[in-house]
Amino acid sequence: MTRNMTSLGEVAQFINGAAFKPEDWGDSGFPIIRIQNLTDESKPFNRTTRTVAEKLQVHPGDLLVSWSATLGVFTWNRPEIGLLNQHIFRVIPDESKVDKAYLRLALSGALSAMQKHLHGATMQHVNRGEFLGTPLYLPTLEEQRRIAAILDQAETLRTQRRTALTLLDSLTQSLFLDMFGDPVANPKGWKKTPFGNVCPTRLGKMLDAKQQTGQNTRRYLRNANVQWFHIDVTDLLEMDFDADARETFRLQAGDLLICEGGEPGRAAIWNGELEDVYYQKALHRGRPNPALAKAEFLVWLLWFLAKRGGLGDHVTAATIAHLTGEKLKAMEIPLPPLPLQQTFATRIASIEALKATHRRALAALDALFASLQQRAFAGQL
Known about the structure:
By secondary structure, the chain is of the alpha+beta class. It has three domains: 2-137, Adenine-n6-DNA-methyltransferase TaqI, Chain A, domain 2 (Alpha-Beta Complex); 139-189 and 336-381, Helix Hairpins, CATH 1.10.287.1120; 191-334, DNA methylase specificity domains (Adenine-n6-DNA-methyltransferase TaqI, Chain A, domain 2, Alpha-Beta Complex), CATH 3.90.220. Helix content is 36%, strand content 20%. The chain is built from ten helices and 23 strands. It has helices at residues 8-11, 35-39, 100-112, 128-132, 141-180, 195-198, 243-249, 295-307, 325-330, 338-376, and strands spanning 5-7, 12-16, 30-33, 46-48, 57-58, 63-66, 72-75, 82-84, 88-93, 118-119, 125-126, 135-137, 192-194, 201-203, 217-221, 226-227, 230-231, 237-240, 256-259, 267-269, 277-279, 283-286, 332-334. The strands form eight sheets. It has a four-stranded antiparallel sheet. Strand 10 and strand 11 (125-126) form a beta hairpin. The protein is globular.
């Protein structure tokens, strides 16, 4: 296999984009392709009439690699020519050596193993020289096409599962709006009440390195562990919680965890995934009053408020945005009848069960794809 080894830089040109300034932007001209436009198709494009070199003009079907902050491989699928912004490579394969589909998969695999190429304390980025020197298994073009076809089939299955999960999320959003209306506009005229009256909250324990003895260490949740509707328990940290702190900050199934900073209001329900887990000061813990509210209703309420600007008046943002305990408790929210909330909770439980099935299948497909990819680029597929 040694004679079939080369490097990424030997099979393609990697052209970096230009730095477009705000004064270059306008409402007409070609779209400027920024990383956010590649990672989120809903993001609007800045346009420009500025003249750039032909090599910075991106044509439909071109491969693009974002190499700073967010790493990824993309194909420009819009019908118009775009202009390449900085921090993105336009990849021009030497088609006498490498199949474009094979190269796209190879680039994706290379980025998945890019930890050694990451540089920068604040904005991580790929070192160009190291990246272009990444080893590449390069069989015949016919063999490359065979490998790409196999991996593309596996990727299609992964995409179908991701699409199903997205559609199920959209179904839950539609269900919420149909039953309760937009909580920002409150078109159904539900009576409003302070959040703290419905769901008493408390900030978590402050992390003080000077007071850590290592004698009462317990696992705890921090801001990064709480994502929308999901709590990541794969990388929990530990700190001291004495007997009083354990009584105060121990999590119970059904607790609502709400981010105080970072993305204020981001929330998920703790379902007792692990025993004896606590939480840090970067999080609010809410315990819904069972006579007034369901946690399933409240977490989706917070999602709609966050996404539709309903938290703006309650977030303090002198330097970094924060949703303080005082502001959270005082925030007026529409409160539908409890039986209606219960109906919503029952319905989304069925949706969540379907999502769990899709997630398990997707995890298995991810593992299969990773195995196939590793074998393919080691010449073993």
